[in-house]
Design a protein that fits this description.
heterodimer, A: mainly alpha, Four Helix Bundle (Hemerythrin (Met), subunit A), 75% helix, B: 568 residues, mainly alpha, Cytochrome C Oxidase, Chain A, two-stranded antiparallel ribbon, 3% strand, binds copper (II) ion
């Protein structure tokens, strides 16, 4: 149909106007937007709506938390002694600081200062990884003790726990980060040597981020080791409280079950023998529910941290490539908003999990 | 060498370079960012799901022809109705109208070139396919027997079927739905050109906007619920499963917090489609435009507060049931406002009994019955005996199938000239619409009767007295099947062999009809002329394009009258 000739008529005016309009299109504006403001506003509204869905996504878990805490307050009070407030507090400070550097990066992008943006975003990424490192120590320590969710809960307060310096679980959690560290280090060195500065710096940033993870692991392990040696001297009130509380709950459960059983069994003299199978793991279901909620909430949050690191590394790359200018900085702003939300969720999780009274 | 006028080029049958022709090859479709192509690809998936789940329905109905077990065991029967429900809900009806008609016409109705986030739109489509693959896995492995609601504890510790794959599929489809909703909200907020004010938007856009609000606010809750269900089943969390200290009622609350609003995800866009088609095929301005627009928003918001009516017999407190019952009744008000306005639009309208109009009239009739029978179920006293009977089955099929599916089919006929650039065969379209209407009523009306006589749902054997109703229902199902299959075939035939359509064959005043048929990649090759959406004087029939063209508003460059005094 290329041979069709178009004859002009009164509708031509509609077309000419449109064509004049097409020209002033800056390269960063997608074809379907008319102006930079329209594009920015769309992205901003989009990210806010996305954050709303995130809040609702976590909202389900918060509702579950409220219901189970309301139903079994004593379980929550007792179980929270197993969480390490100091490590949780350290992570809170790390995330708060990362929000500051993120905000700094957004401001720098608005001013078109790509170098400051890159550095701020990199610090944010390192903080995020450090958070995960501390979290890995916390998780692996609990898994060693049998502080597992739901039915898998197998913590025995009377058993003596040998304190390994490095848990096997921790090693497993570290492996993927170590692999990425080595790979990005090699990639950074190779690229920088061949003169590919941009991509080399990008990989270098990723490697530094992974080092942040191991810094977190180191801090966590050292703190745990210190706590363990204090405990072995019998002076750590914290761990002692946890053990006592759980033991109390166990004995309470046993009494409870024993009190009910005689009504159903004829021979009350064989009481103890009859109840033994029924109360084999009396405490599991109760404390396990707390850890179910704990792992669901903090685990989902950790997934969001990992997602945040991926998004931030994209921003980091684009900052190195000097994409931001005072009329185009939307993506930094959007990822920044996301990061603040992830931070904010932790600000709620920390007191709800670690600081129960 | 042919000569066409600018008018024919802009408002006629697209001469060349339309969106179907803009690029070629499978990859140009899989990686397209064009909202129109994405809509077409959704259509393949949605119609395939409809046929698949429809075949399941026919198998179920055939089994139910006899009072005793015939060719399905009770376990197979359970799996069959579960997959029928799950595929119909998650793969057919929730995406149906927004993903096909919404994606295709929403940007054009606004006067935009595309949705705000074309890449996110493509991601939604891919997630839809991915979710579909999970359901195919379920189908190919151990199937699923939990019912589409996945109630705990059966789904977490009793069922031996592939619950995890099915819930994972539903979880992924949920994200597809969230992204579509998010995209539509942003598009409507920020992509409107000058002159397109909120109250100049066609009613379909109000319907889609309200739907999108629900998708964004409710679907994440389903997401976390299904995720918890998966973890519960694998790790025995004890959140939903009473065997490990959990609360199954909590699951029901979470599930219906999404799934009741999901009913409005299904029906609100269908209502929007009906409002559009009604105005065009009656050639009359919609009666009470603002009331229809605002009732969509009202339904969306009140719809969040009624989920407890699914738990009347689950052991929730009497007071809670009472409150939920009262709020449920209040949703009937905005729904009735819509029906009233539609009927008033038809009154003394210039009704053209085309195929889309016949579907509209079916919709109003069937939705009316579906809505009114909902009042029996919303009232506590009558819900107790009717609960879990065929009355419930008939009620929600009247709303979802009689409502949404009818509107979807009508909408496809109405916008088919725009989708394909071709007209469908009108007599055949009407014939199969008749089959759909008769078949539907024959299938589901007897179910109201047997439900009120006490026939419980989900049973594959039943007492003699119900057999006559079951047999009528089975015959109806086959009639309905012929109707749907025939209607789709009429559309397929038209796609390839139909008469070429002009840009605006119906004389509609909304903006998507200002594009050529099929539209170009950028939708509009000209500056759009925004007028009132139902001002049918703004278009005029033009023989040279064999369709309607917009009237260019006269612009006065000098005042009509000389001012009385010349200001100094
Ligand atoms: Cu409902």
């Amino acid at each position: 149909m290329a041979t069709t000739k178009v004859e002009r008529d009164e509708y031509s005016a509609l077309v000419d106007l449109e064509h004049n309009h097409e020209h002033d299109h800056a390269p960063f504006i997608a074809h379907h937007f008319y102006t930079a403001e329209q594009q920015f506003d769309s992205g901003k509204l989009g990210i806010w709506l996305f954050l709303v869905t995130e809040v609702l996504f976590f909202g389900g878990l918060f509702v579950a938390y409220i219901i189970y805490r309301y139903n079994r307050p004593e379980v929550f009070v007792d179980a929270h002694h197993h969480l390490d407030t100091l490590l949780g507090g350290l992570n809170t400070i790390v995330l708060l600081f990362s929000s500051l550097t993120m905000a700094w990066g957004v401001r720098a992008a608005q001013l078109g200062d790509n170098k400051t943006t890159a550095i701020s975003v990199l610090i944010t990424m390192v903080c995020a990884a450090l958070f995960l490192g501390v979290k890995a120590v916390e998780y692996s320590h609990k898994w060693d003790l049998g502080l597992l969710p739901g039915d898998m809960f197998s913590y025995d307060p009377h058993a003596h726990h040998a304190h390994h310096m490095i848990s096997n679980y921790l090693v497993m959690l570290c492996i993927p980060f170590a692999v990425i560290l080595v790979a990005t280090l090699i990639a950074a060195v190779l690229n920088l040597n061949t003169g590919k500065v941009l991509i080399g710096r990008f990989y270098g940033g990723l490697a530094i981020t992974m080092l942040g993870f191991f810094a977190g692991v180191l801090v966590g392990v050292l703190w745990m080791a210190g706590a363990a040696s204090e405990e072995s001297h019998g002076s750590d009130a914290h761990a002692a409280v946890a053990t006592d509380a759980t033991a109390r709950l166990v004995s309470f459960e046993v009494d409870d079950a024993a009190a009910k059983t005689p009504a159903t069994t004829e021979a009350s003299t064989t009481d103890a023998a009859a109840t033994t199978p029924a109360v084999e793991h009396p405490v599991d279901k109760k404390l396990g529910v707390f850890f179910s909620i704990y792992y669901c909430m903090t685990g989902l949050h950790a997934v969001h941290i990992i997602g945040g690191i991926i998004a931030l590394s994209w921003i980091f790359y684009r900052s190195l490539a000097a994409h931001w200018r005072s009329d185009y900085f939307g993506p930094v702003d959007y990822v920044g908003l996301y990061w603040h939300l992830v931070d904010l969720i932790w600000i709620y999780l920390f007191p709800l999990m670690y600081l129960i009274r | 060498m042919a000569t066409v006028t600018q008018k024919q080029q802009l408002f006629g049958h697209a001469p060349s370079n339309h969106y179907l022709d803009a690029s070629h090859g499978v990859m140009s479709w899989i990686f397209t960012l064009d909202h129109k192509r994405i809509a077409i690809m959704y259509m393949y998936g949605v119609i395939a799901s409809l046929f698949l789940a429809g075949i399941f329905a026919l198998v179920l109905r055939t089994e139910l022809y006899t009072t005793k077990e015939w060719f399905l065991t009770s376990a197979q029967y359970n799996q069959m109705f579960t997959l029928h429900g799950a595929v119909m809900v998650f793969l057919f009806i929730i995406p149906s109208v927004p993903a096909i008609i919404g994606n295709f016409v929403l940007p054009m109705m606004l006067g935009a070139k595309d949705v705000a986030f074309p890449r996110l739109n493509l991601a939604s489509l891919w997630l839809y396919w991915l979710g579909g693959i999970f359901f195919i896995v379920v189908l190919a492995t151990t199937q699923l027997d939990t019912g589409w609601t996945f109630y705990t504890p059966y789904s977490t510790s009793k069922s031996n079927t592939n619950v995890i794959a099915a819930t994972m599929g539903a979880f992924i489809l949920g994200f597809s739905s969230i992204f579509t909703g998010l995209n539509f909200i942003v598009t409507i907020n920020t992509m409107r050109p000058k002159g397109m004010t909120w109250f100049r938007m066609p009613l379909l856009l109000w319907g889609l906007y309200s739907t999108s609000i629900i998708q964004v606010l409710a679907t994440p809750v389903l997401g976390i619920t299904l995720l918890l269900l998966i973890v519960e089943r694998t790790l025995k969390l004890g959140i939903f499963d009473p065997n490990y200290g959990g609360d199954p009622l909590l699951y029901q609350h979470f599930f219906w917090f999404y799934s009741h609003p999901a009913v409005y995800i299904m029906i609100l866009p269908a209502m929007g489609v009906v409002s559009e088609m009604l105005a065009v095929h009656c050639r009359k301005e919609v009666f009470g435009y603002k009331f229809i627009a605002m009732s969509s928003v009202a339904i969306a918001l009140i719809g969040f507060l009624v989920w407890g009516h699914h738990l009347f017999t689950s052991g929730q407190s009497d007071l809670t049931s009472l409150v939920f019952s009262a709020i449920t009744f209040s949703v009937a008000v905005p729904s009735a406002v819509k029906v009233f306005n539609w009927l008033c639009t038809m009154y003394r309208g210039d009704i053209n009994l085309s195929t889309p109009m016949l579907y509209v009239m079916s919709f109003i009739f069937l939705f009316g019955i579906g809505g009114l029978t909902g009042l029996w179920l919303g009232a506590l006293s009558t819900d107790i005996p009717l609960h879990d009977t065929y009355f419930v089955v008939a009620h929600f099929h009247y709303v979802m199938v009689g409502g949404t599916m009818t509107a979807l089919l009508g909408g496809l006929f109405h916008w088919w000239p725009k989708f394909s650039g071709r007209m469908y065969n009108e007599p055949l379209g009407k014939l199969f619409c008749f089959f759909v209407f008769v078949g539907f009523n024959l299938t589901f009306f007897p179910q109201f009767i047997m439900g009120s006589l006490g026939m419980p749902r989900r049973y594959h054997e039943y007492a003699e007295i119900y057999q006559i109703y079951h047999q009528a229902s089975t015959w109806g199902a086959y009639t309905l099947g012929i109707g749907i299959f025939g209607a789709v075939m009429v559309l397929v035939y038209a796609w390839f062999f139909g008469r070429k359509a002009s840009g605006n064959p119906w004389g509609a005043a909304t903006l998507e009809w200002q594009c050529s048929s099929p539209p170009s990649f950028h939708n509009f090759e000209h500056r759009v002329i925004v007028s009132e959406p139902y001002d049918f004087a703004s278009v005029v029939y033009d023989e040279s394009v064999d369709g309607y063209v917009p009237v260019i508003p006269k612009r006065e460059t000098t005042p009509n009258q000389q001012p009385a005094t010349v200001p100094h």
